[in-house]
Amino acid sequence: MDSLRLRDVQARVDAYISQFEEGYFDPPTLVNRLCEELGELAREVSHRFGPKKKKPGEAEGEMELEIGDLLFVLVCLSNSQGYDMDDIFRRTMEKYETRDKDRWTRKRPAP
Ligand SMILES: [Mg+2]
Q1: pLDDT, tens digit (0-9, with 9 covering 90-100), for 64-82
Q2: Residue 34's closest CA among 3, 78, 1, 4?
Q3: pTM for the whole thing?
């Protein structure tokens, strides 16, 4: 699992943000931005899978782009706090792989 490249993602975002005097927003602002982007993703999911379709002529958004926006803001929040996202991801997977290892029905091996 050492091939994960979240650190590269973090470095690219940092190179982008470092071009600007403003730098990273403060954590409350970044969390607000996360909520905004999550709302945009929710809207796309709702239109794609729910009963409330878009109005005629309303542009079809892309779920992938909204997921990307969420990732970007999460990386900004992590970078602003000096967090290592490879370490965050490793710790998160260890949690799921131990705590939830017997929670779901495992697929049977092929005969
Ligand atoms: Mg967005």
Answers
A1: 999 999 999 999 999 999 9
A2: 78
A3: 0.86
How many A from CA of 88 to the centre of ligand 1? 24
Ligand 1 geometric centre to CA of 96 (Å): 28
Tokens of 70: 């969420």
Domains annotated for the chain, with CATH where assigned, are: 6-99 (1.10.287.1080)
DSSP 21: T
- C-alpha of residue 42 to centroid of ligand 1, in Å: 10
CA 2 to chain centre: 20
Q: Residue 5 has which token pair?
A: 């490249």
State pLDDT tens for residues 86-110. Answer: 999 999 999 999 998 889 999 988 7
47 C-alpha to center of ligand 1: Å? 15
What pLDDT, on a 0 to 100 scale, did the predictor assign at position 2? 55
- The pair of three-digit structure tokens given for residue 94, joined into one six-digit string: 């260890």
Phi and psi angles of residue 51, each rounded to the nearest 5 degrees, phi first: -80, -20
